[in-house]
Amino acid sequence: MKYLCLVYSDEQDLHGLPESPKDSECAAYAESLVRSGHMVAGEALQSVHTATTVRVRSGEVQITDGPFAETKEQLAGFYMIEARDLNEALRIAQGIPPARVGSIEVRPVRQLQVD
């Protein structure tokens, strides 16, 4: 089953604390997931300041600079993984380096039914 591990962190903490992971550590963990057959996809995101939000309400398009909501933690990246079950997905998620300074939201991917 596929799970999406969403990496959330305050951008200042993600890069500024002593326990903050380096890009090379994140890349090494991702590579270990590739070798074990768990990695489907994963990427780090650019700063939240580069975000643009699109909404359509009553047929009208609204485009605003910035993320969807003001929050303490921002979406920093994601890992799409393949795991036997939620327990295995949680085990994998706890090894994602930014978990030390932020949080990892683990969600099963819902398969769309196309008619």
UniProtKB/TrEMBL annotation:
Span of domain YCII-related: 1-111
User: InterPro entries, alphabetically?
Assistant: Dimeric_a/b-barrel, YCII
Record family assignment: Belongs to the YciI family.
Q: What is this protein called?
A: YciI family protein
